[in-house]
Amino acid sequence: MTIRTLDDLLAEGVSGRRVLVRADLNVPLDKQTGQIADHNSASAPRHGTPDGMRIADDGRIRAVLPTLDALVRAGAKVVVCSHLGRPKGAPDPQYSLRPVAGRLGELLGAPVHFATDTVGDSARSTVEALADGQVALLENLRFNKGETSKDDAERAAFADQLAGFGEAYVDDAFGAVHRRHASVYDVPARLPHVAGRLVLREVEVLGRLAGEPERPYVVVLGGSKVSDKLAVIEALLPKVDRLLIGGGMCFTFLKAQGHEVGTSLLEEEMVETCRNLLERSEGKIMLPVDVVAADAFAPDAAHDTVAADAIPAKRLGLDIGPETVAGFAAALADAKTVFWNGPMGVFEMPAFANGTRGVAEAITKTDAFTVVGGGDSAAAVRALGLDESSFGHISTGGGASLEYLEGKTLPGIAALED
Ligand SMILES: Nc1ncnc2c1ncn2[C@@H]1O[C@H](COP(=O)(O)OP(=O)(O)O)[C@@H](O)[C@H]1O
Ligand SMILES: O=C(OP(=O)(O)O)[C@H](O)COP(=O)(O)O
């Protein structure tokens, strides 16, 4: 099995050819409403649009620049596609990629032509009008049911339309390679396909962790995509020495231990799974002993640190508490390999950012090989003003890197193999 690379495609010559690039431009956005405090503007300048959405962190846009720059310099007509957020298969203005087109143009130093639909009239005319070395961005892939459909025929019909925009396909969307979606899985079957620079680099570095990581190997999990990640824990447990669970992930486990979690993020139908995992974990799983519980999901909500087994009924846990941070730091201290995915709390609100900051700092203090994965986790590192160079690798994919570490064959990687 081999995977051809962007360099192979460039060697064939792409001048004047239309190249379809699947990128993961799923950047964190916030609204200019003051709802989320602008605590990170010093380290991460925001890029806004008149319609009110701002890019809180442009790391995922920057990550795809090496691939796009190379194609532009080689004179390709570059058609970029991506998802943003989780719209439900129909246009939804809050998930428009328009602000991303603006920022991508600034970073590339040339305007990016934005199509207001994904495969409709606007996309067709935008792609048609591209000159050599120009870049177009299509509107959010997930505005179309076919992108994420479980029905093969529905995905295929959408993939046929998308593939019509390229003579070759480059996958540089590492953050989405674990998704069996039309643009990731079905389009490469229809076009000559290669891996972009970002995908290659991610696979190379994460390969170090997927093989024989130096021990102790500690994995830290948080964030809010609870059901996605619970599925991964089972496979990871035998490979790790310790698994520290915070963020929105921890409440389903606390519930499984018999504690009430108030109105915290909870996957009721996964409680039994968590109970089984705890029973079989041989003591490897560490959960919070205290949490910061608030009376609302808001930056100015009243909040207190409470014991993890005493969360008041009307409150929700928005961060791990200081005792937990100290315990997690101790569990990390002798690690030789660390993988961290998912913020420990709602770090976007300063009142609930201390857990994420504390655990991130503890990770940087180890002499381990450290990898941070995930759009929001990487954004948190930058937003909290942490030194990016003190981590071994900052991956653009959270779910993708976790599934890669599991040793799974990922649909988006398999689709590139010849
Ligand atoms: N206790 C919590 N309750 C609700 N949301 C949380 C909690 N802790 C963290 N989060 C949220 O999780 C989000 C990131 O989750 P996720 O997408 O899983 O991470 P990543 O993008 O790094 O993979 C952040 O926006 C953060 O606000
Ligand atoms: O943000 C992403 O993943 P991550 O939060 O696991 O890093 C990717 O863009 C994939 O998005 P999805 O989890 O909605 O498929």
UniProtKB/TrEMBL annotation:
Main location: cytoplasm
Annotated SUPFAM superfamilies: Phosphoglycerate kinase (SSF53748)
Catalytic activities: (2R)-3-phosphoglycerate + ATP = (2R)-3-phospho-glyceroyl phosphate + ADP
Compartment(s) of residence: Cytoplasm
Keywords: ATP-binding, Cytoplasm, Glycolysis, Kinase, Nucleotide-binding, Transferase
One Pfam family recorded for the sequence: PGK
Positions contributing to (2R)-3-phosphoglycerate binding: R60, R142, R179
GO cellular component, one term: cytosol
Molecular function terms from GO: ADP binding; ATP binding; phosphoglycerate kinase activity
Pathway: Carbohydrate degradation; glycolysis; pyruvate from D-glyceraldehyde 3-phosphate: step 2/5
Residues at which ATP binds: K229, G317, E348, G374, G375, D376, S377
Residues annotated for substrate binding in this entry: D24, L25, N26, R60, H83, L84, G85, R86, R142, R179
GO biological process, one term: gluconeogenesis
This enzyme's EC code(s): 2.7.2.3
Quaternary structure and partners: Monomer.
Family: Belongs to the phosphoglycerate kinase family.
Name of the protein in its database record: Phosphoglycerate kinase
Organism of provenance: Micromonospora inyonensis
Biological classification of the source: Bacteria, Bacillati, Actinomycetota, Actinomycetes, Micromonosporales
Gene: pgk
